[in-house]
Write a structure and sequence with these properties.
It contains 8 helices and no strands. The protein is mostly helical. The protein folds into 2 domains: 4-89, RNA polymerase sigma factor, region 2, helix turn helix motif (Rna Polymerase Sigma Factor, Chain: A); 99-182, Arc Repressor Mutant, subunit A, CATH 1.10.10. The longest helix has 28 residues, at 155-182.
């Protein structure tokens, strides 16, 4: 997390379109923002492309940052919206919302306790619509109303997708626990 003083310095430098400051901001936040992209987009090259496009947008629209909240939070919102735009462009957002495709899917189950990495892998294995809603609500902290506006869906659809995502995650975790008990 950047300090308020760091953010102020970086923001002012980026406003002046200072390449060194832009590079510094990118170097400080690219890793975190790539992790955000990877939560939405399974393909690493697509995630990296969206990251680059996001930072281009940050640098061209830096004058629109009003100082309300953190600069890092403002950048994260841009990254999330760019990820959603990528999903829409490729018509992936709701292409796979049925849990049926996951009934017969084989998951490698670890033998140790459930780790953060294993949980993130389970989230990544959710159908894309469920995963997107889960990320927006549970990880990014958006409300169902905000998600509905961002995705052009009803609040009920957002709630339903989240509920289905949670159900699938619970099933995956249960299978993981059963696997550990057997082995």
């Amino acid at each position: 997390m950047l300090t308020a003083a760091q953010e102020q310095t970086l923001w002012k430098g980026c406003l002046r379109q200072n390449p060194q400051t832009q590079r510094q901001l990118y170097d400080l936040l690219a890793g975190k923002m790539l992790a955000v992209c990877k939560r939405y987009l399974k393909d690493i090259s697509t995630a990296e492309e969206v990251l680059m496009n996001s930072f281009l947008k940050v640098f061209t629209k830096i004058d629109q940052f009003r100082g309300e909240g953190s600069l890092e939070g403002w950048i994260r919102k841009i990254v999330v919206r760019e990820c959603l735009n990528e999903l829409r462009r490729n018509q992936l957002l709701y292409a796979e919302t049925s849990a049926e495709g996951y009934k017969n899917k084989v998951f490698e189950m670890p033998t140790d306790n459930l780790s953060v990495e294993e949980l993130m892998q389970m989230i990544e294995n959710l159908p894309i619509g469920y995963r997107t809603i889960f990320n927006l609500y549970a990880i990014e902290g958006y409300s169902h109303k905000e998600i509905a506006e961002m995705l052009n869906i009803s609040e009920g659809t957002s709630k339903s997708q989240l509920s289905r995502a949670r159900t699938l995650l619970q099933e995956m975790i249960q299978k993981n626990q059963e696997y550990k008990i057997k082995n």
